[in-house]
Structure formats: C-alpha cells, structure tokens
Amino acid sequence: MQIPIDKISQAKHILLICDNSSFGVASALYTYVLTLHKKVSISSAIAIEKRLSFMPWYDKVRCSSSSSADLVIEVENDIGIFFDLLDKDEIKINKKMATALYGALLMKYDFFKSSECDGMVFAWASQLIALGAEYKTCREYLQKRESLSSIRLKATLYKTLLLKENATQAELYISDEELKASGSYIEDVYPIMKEVLNIVNVEEVTLIKSDENSKIVKQLKEI
Length: 223
Hints:
Layout: H1 5-10, E1 13-18, H2 23-35, E2 39-44, E3 61-62, E4 71-74, H3 80-87, H4 95-108, H5 119-130, H6 135-144, H7 148-160, E5 162-164, E6 169-174, H8 176-182, H9 189-196, E7 204-209, E8 215-221
Parallel strand pairs: 1-2, 1-4, 2-3, 6-7
Antiparallel strand pairs: 5-6, 7-8
C-alpha cells in the first residue's frame, strides 16, 4: 500500500476502508488527514474488535461507506510506509499516530515474537515510543483484553482441531453457523491459526469451511 500524498492533498473527502488487522494504520492515517484540515471517514465491513478501542478514532468507524468521498483508500497493515515518508520529511508522526502504529506493530509482529521481526521492526518500535506512543496501554489492551466472542471461537476451533502427518499439519474446521453463534467473522480465525502454529511440531495450519464441501479458506505456514 502507498499513501497517495498528492491525491490526499487534492481531495475534499477521504474515505478509509479497513478491517481489524489494518485499523491501526487506518487510525494513524485518519489523524494525518485531519492535520490537513480535510474531511475524512473510516469504514469497516466487520465490527472492529473492542480490544482495539484504545486506538484513536475507534468510535468513528462506520459499517457503511460514505458516498460523498472523492478519494477511497483501502488500508493495509503496512507500518513501514509511514517511516518511508517520515524519512523524506513528507509526514510527521504525532502522539496519536504513534500509539496507533505501535499497536499495529504489536499485532503484525505478534508482540515481537514473529519470525518476520527484524532489527528494522525494533527500530520502528523505539522510534514510535520516542514520538510518544502509549506503549503500555497498547500491550495492556492487546494482550490482556480478550472478547467473549474470541474465547467462544477458540473453543469451537480447538474442538475441531486435527493433527496429521506426524502432527506437522493442523486442520481447523468452521461453519457460518458456528461463526454466527460465537459472534465472530472469518477474519477473526486468522490470529488463532497463528496460535496453532505454536503447537509442538506443527508447521502448517489449514482453515476449512465445513459447510462448504470442505473448502480451504486459508493456509498458514511456519516461516
């Protein structure tokens, strides 16, 4: 994802479309657009998790998209784009933006436990803290506050968990009815798939829709 600085400067009303994984970046981008004194809206097709309520503009997210927007940006969880622009002096990161981006960093790199986490990620984290990120609040909300729907979803998924190929292959099964009963969306399953990768010997996790002829929805491999 690229932040279209030129297009934003020309637009009158910017609409940001996000989901749970990209809400932190969207929150930071929302703040940036406000500093330009422009109208901005934020939309998500699914409900943003309550544990993300510490991030700025959580209460501004709407399910419907504004038809008056003349620029629509589909936001991705790409924290690096802000630092690229920061290095070029094209953008400034204030405290609100820093907090949102630090939260996004924790989510994307699994609290710095991800195999994708490198020196650059730690440098970003240090820089965001220096810029005023409320890092303690981020950790408290993201690590210690889990929704009831998430707990119900985990219980459903772990009941269906199958290990194959000497326990190196894990399969999780879910149906639309089970998602609805837990108050969850299919995207909410993805973080749980990462947890399953922590099981001893597991190298790959496959998510399967049990009510759609065992359709494979997503596969996740150990890196």
